[in-house]
UniProtKB/TrEMBL annotation:
UniProt subcellular location: Cytoplasm
Residues noted as binding S-adenosyl-L-methionine in the record, renumbered to the chain: 73, 104, 123-128
Function recorded in the entry: Specifically methylates the pseudouridine at position 1915 (m3Psi1915) in 23S rRNA.
UniProt similarity note: Belongs to the RNA methyltransferase RlmH family.
Subunit description: Homodimer.
Protein name: Ribosomal RNA large subunit methyltransferase H
Organism encoding this protein: Nitrincola tapanii
NCBIfam families: PRK00103.1-4, tRNA_RlmH_YbeA
EC nos: 2.1.1.177
Keyword DNA damage found: no
């Protein structure tokens, strides 16, 4: 299974890239994690925020591949413990499709992206900076995979 993280935002600080890459490289090829950066919509002075979100949504929807299982990271989504995430990951693998995880920009995901999702997942009730979400997500996927492999990393 290939997991693609479609995330709004480009040109992240080095520590974000290093953190994400550290966990992504630890995952095996049958649970490969790939980052697809989506250009953020214009948010300068006098910007139309709805237009920015719509632009991000257009790009995100265009980046989805046929037959991918789509999971929107949303504050209103389901929250999982590490063990529950591992079980979800196993379910995703058994589903036989590749996975697309959607992370919106500073104003959230376009409603069309949320509507296109097969599942909605909340990483936390806390508000997390979008760059940090990439690292937390990669680490949690790695942690879930290690749990499925019987490794003690989840403790």
């Amino acid at each position: 299974m290939r997991v693609r993280l479609l995330a709004v935002g480009q040109k992240m600080p080095g520590w974000v890239e290093a953190g994400f890459n550290e966990y992504a490289k630890r995952l095996p090829t049958d649970f490969q994690l790939e980052l697809v950066e989506i250009a953020p919509g214009y948010r300068g002075k006098g910007a139309d925020i709805a237009r920015a979100i719509r632009s991000e949504g257009d790009a995100m929807l265009a980046a989805l591949q046929k037959n991918e299982k789509v999971i929107a990271l949303e504050v209103g989504g389901r929250s999982w413990s590490t063990e529950q995430l591992a079980q979800e990951a196993e379910n995703w693998r058994m589903d036989g499709r590749n996975l697309a995880l959607l992370v919106g920009g500073p104003d959230g995901l376009d409603a069309r992206c949320v509507a296109a999702a097969d599942q909605k997942w909340s990483l936390s009730a806390l508000t997390l900076p979008h760059p940090l979400v990439r690292i937390v997500l990669a680490e949690q996927l790695y942690r879930a995979w290690t749990l499925l492999q019987g490794h003690p990393y989840h403790k």
